[in-house]
Amino acid sequence: MPITIDSDIRKAKTLPSSYYTNPEIFSDLRRRFANHLHFAGHQSQLDGQTAIPIQHMGELIGEPMIMTRSDRIRCISNVCTHRGMLVSSTECSAKSLKCPYHGRTFGLDGTFRSMPRFDNVSDFPSPEDNLKEFVTASWKGLIFTGVGNSSSEGNFQELRKRLEWIPIESFKNDPSRNRSYEIDANWLLYVDNYLEGFHIPYVHSDLNNTLDYDSYRTELFEGGTLQIGIASEGEPSFDLPESSPDFGLRVAAYYYWLFPGTMLNFYPWGLSVNLVIPLSVNRTKIIYHGYVGDPLMLGRGAGGNLDKVELEDQEIVEATQSGVESGSYDRGRYSPTMETGIHHFHRILTRTDD
């Protein structure tokens, strides 16, 4: 039965526990991932390469993809149009893509090039023999893609307001910062936890020392949220230009969440991306990617020890999963000052127009 989250956070109740435990609700929400664009990668991942598989897109929306660079960056299907074999499993610097099963060859734009032993096939090749090209959107080197026609322009506008001055396009992919975790919890709980700084002094003692907790704030926009962490006195922060709306503040981190499961975490050293991939009603994969802008800032401030923060979050989220599965819990209430991001998320989830 559809529910409504009251628009007045002072009156609203949180999601029912069934949203975290019911397989049918999980499946309904999971299907909505196909309606949105998702983070594919950063252009620096193609430095020295012409094609890289986007491994997580198959898990996210059931479409194995390759990100290629020729005249421009594209996200194309990784499924051979002959028999459905995956065309590429590793990055490469070749000028074409060749299926390892029967040798069908494609250009980096996905167009069919050649196929052995197909000389007498009628009406061949046709446009159906090309690899499908998916919507590809980019902003300052960040690449997004998906299977639908949804636009990322609204989210890009929000990013521009704060971050246009940062040379994100010059960041470099740092594979040593990549991580992949699987946790025993519903994906909604992981996002819930991300969307509030309420828990920081109780769960993240080291992070709490680097942030001015009383100055922590959340801003809402149509496609997501922004949390701004203010550095404690003496802790690293951005050197903000006068054009920044936050000029004069000691900003330690910008935490962007884009519905449904992309998290862009900007620190003085660069960008850490969290990708949330729902696996089952009580199992979630989280993938991290790191892109470095200033190596001298690594290991310092709010973005200094992300592994520790992640493991602390996972422990809390898994324990909360056990709690919401209890028959003694159904719905809670929101803090009007600290949980506006979760309230916004739950309002988006329960809309019927998405």
Descriptive notes:
The chain is an alpha+beta fold and 354 residues long. The protein folds into two domains: 1-34 and 166-354, Alpha-Beta Complex (Naphthalene 1,2-dioxygenase Alpha Subunit, Chain A, domain 1), CATH 3.90.380; 37-149, 3-layer Sandwich (Rieske Iron-sulfur Protein), CATH 2.102.10. Helices cover 22% and strands 27% of the residues. Strands 10, 11, 12, 13, 14, 15, 16 and 17 form an eight-stranded antiparallel β-sheet that branches. Strands 1-9-8-4-3-2 form a six-stranded antiparallel β-sheet. A hairpin with a 2-residue loop joins strand 8 (133-139) and strand 9. Helix 5 crosses helix 8.
**Overall number of structural domains:** 2
**CATH homology superfamily of the largest domain:** Naphthalene 1,2-dioxygenase Alpha Subunit, Chain A, domain 1
Name the CATH architecture of the largest domain: Alpha-Beta Complex
Main sheet characteristics: 8 strands, antiparallel
- End-to-end Cα distance: 16 Å
Number of helical regions? 9
Would you list the SSEs in sequence order as H and E? HHEEHEEEEEEEHEEHHHEEEEEEHH
Please state roughly what percent of the residues sit in beta strands, choosing from under 5%, 5-15%, 15-25%, 25-35%, 35-45% or over 45%: 25-35%
Which range best describes the helical content: under 10%, 10-25%, 25-40%, 40-55%, 55-70% or over 70%?
10-25%
Mean pLDDT: 95
Radius of gyration: 22 Å
Structural class: alpha+beta
Task: Give the CATH level 1 class of the largest domain.
Answer: Alpha Beta
